[in-house]
Amino acid sequence: MSSTKENVSDEVSKGQQARNALRQSLRSQRLVLNAPTLHADNPLLPDTADDDSNKLAKQYQGTILKVEVPQFVLEVDPGRAGLVWLNWDNVRQHPSQFAFTTPINPAVFPLQLTLPVDATLGAGRHSLTFTANVQGNGTISEPLPIYIDQLAPNSGQAGAVVTLPEEVESDGITKEYLDANGFVLVTVPAYRESKIGDVVELYFGRSNEGAARVGTQTRADTSTPVTFELTPGLIGDQEGPKFLFYKLTDRVGNVGPDSNYKPIRVVLTPAPANLKPLTVPLALPSPGDDLIDIEDARTGVQAQIEAYTNSLPGDRIVVTWDGQEVSGDVAATGPTFVTIPYTVLLNGDPGEKTVDVTYRIERGDLNYPEPTTVQVNVDLRLPGPTDPENPGPVNDALELVTVLGAVSATPNKLTTEDAGEDATASVLIYDYYKPGDVVQLYWAGTAVPDSGDPAVPGGIYVVTGSEDAEFQIEFSIPWAVIEAAGNSDAIPVHYSIAHPSVNDAVVLSGNQPVEVAVMTVTLPAITFLHLDPDFGLLNCGSLRRHATLEWVAELSVDGGEPKLAGQLLTFDFVGTAGAGGQDATFKFTFTPTPEQANNGFVVYLPYDPPLITLRDGTGSISYTASIDGIPASSANTDVDVWMGRAGAGAPTCELTLGSARP
Question: What is the pLDDT of residue 580?
Answer without folding.
Answer: 63
